[in-house]
Amino acid sequence: MITSKPKFKICRRLGAAIYEKCQTPKYTMSEAKKGFKKGKKPKQLSDFGSQLIEKQKARFMYGISEKQFSKYVEVSTQTKGINAGEFLSELLESRLDNTIYRLGIGHTRALARQIVCHGHILVNGKRVTIPSYKIKLGDTISLREGSRSKPLFSDLAKKLREYSAPKWLSFDIEKNIATVLAKPKSDDTLLNFNAVFEYYSR
């Protein structure tokens, strides 16, 4: 887990899509009040600077440490017969905390991570408290019976009726069971994994 930093400041540097908190009217109003300095041209980034930005985007978006992220990159580049970018995306998306976020159980990845750490989630009927736990094809994910009555999840079924999970996940709201139907895949075009690999190849 990455250390806590001012999220608005990070969003100004990396883009508003990094955190859900920056995709709100409050953030928009905050930026509007600051305005832009007239006559100031955007700073031109070097190749290294651009690559660093892309690496930080991915790391902050998924909320993981530099050590964790560099390990994912290393595994992706050393696995033969696959597209490294697609495999890196799969590794990030298959984290349990991200899966809980994609299911809509947690409206942010930070909240989803907290939900996992507090023991609210079962994978194949067993409690898992490790956010980085890798989900696999065919796994079932559900809320622990004792957690369903907690205020955090009291109106979950109502909220999820308005939510569409990605195609690689199926969620039976009535039975409170989600199933992994395929390999995790992100449709997010914000991340440039080629630049990330170039950063680590230096």
Class computed from helices, strands and strand pairing:
alpha+beta
Give the mean pLDDT: 85
CATH architecture of the domain at 107-180: Roll
Gyration radius over CA = 18 Å
Number of helices: 9
Q: Estimate the global geometry from the Cα principal axes.
A: globular
Number of strands: 5
Strand fraction: 5-15%
Unreliable spans: none
Widest beta sheet: strand line-up: 2-1-3-5-4
Which homologous superfamily in CATH is the superfamily of the domain at 107-180?
RNA-binding S4 domain
Largest sheet entry: 5 strands, antiparallel
> And the CATH topology of the domain at 107-180?
Structural Genomics Hypothetical 15.5 Kd Protein In mrcA-pckA Intergenic Region, Chain A
Which CATH class of the domain at 107-180 applies here? Alpha Beta
Task: Tell me roughly what share of residues is in helical segments.
Answer: 40-55%
State the separation between the terminal residues, measured CA to CA.
25 Å
Reading the helices and strands in chain order gives HHHHHHHEEEHEEH
